[in-house]
């Protein structure tokens, strides 16, 4: 079942607590009926006493895949990451305008499609990867590749101490529960003054009414950046219909001028 952007936006601002979900605000009957149909398909049942829909498990776990894909289905990905198809990785790196000798950071490297594409330009690429198996596979792939990575570190990127030493950050962070916003904000702290960040993010960052997404859009706008939706089939090669957007912004020319980083 496909879910419209209007209904996705309403689901994104619903109140979820444990197994219960409550829709926000006054909805017209037609909108409520459509959302009720989505919630029932996802496993939620209206409960008069709870004044909301109740799920067998955690409501957020049922709704998150719908927000990511725009469909009522279960999408399982390790740590919420969707591996970047090579063609999209090449586009990301091209937008970053990477040149030989630049220091580049890939904070959630996964299987390395973005990182290795950046290394092909002669950049010194530093990678973080939280999944031990992927980290080991990436290190081995780098050793076999024509263009090797500078370093592959196994750890949660959000726990890394920021240092503004990178010319570029290129990334496809985990999406679950708006983790992509947290990762991109943290990654911005690693940019040199005037450096550029290019990221693939969940299309949920464009949902109106979502306070965290609204604050993030302001964060990008303050840096003169752009947010552009990607085609629905951008991740078809990775076996998913996840809805995504491309985010690009440059760090302020002076770290002292950075606002909200």
Explain this structure to me?
This protein is an alpha/beta fold and 261 residues long. The protein has two domains: 5-76, no CATH class; 80-257, Vaccinia Virus protein VP39 (Rossmann fold, 3-Layer(aba) Sandwich), CATH 3.40.50. Helices cover 33% and strands 21% of the residues. It is built from eight helices and eleven strands. It has helices spanning 5-12, 29-41, 59-69, 86-96, 113-119, 132-144, 179-188, 211-222, and strands at 15-17, 20-22, 45-47, 52-54, 103-106, 124-129, 151-154, 166-171, 191-202, 226-229, 244-250. It has a seven-stranded mixed β-sheet, with helices on both faces. Strands 1-2-4-3 form a four-stranded antiparallel β-sheet, with helices on one face. Helix 4 (86-96) crosses helix 5 (113-119). The protein is elongated and about 60 Å long. It starts with a helix and ends in an 11-residue tail after the last strand. The relative contact order is 0.13. Residues 75-79 and 255-259 have low confidence and may be disordered.
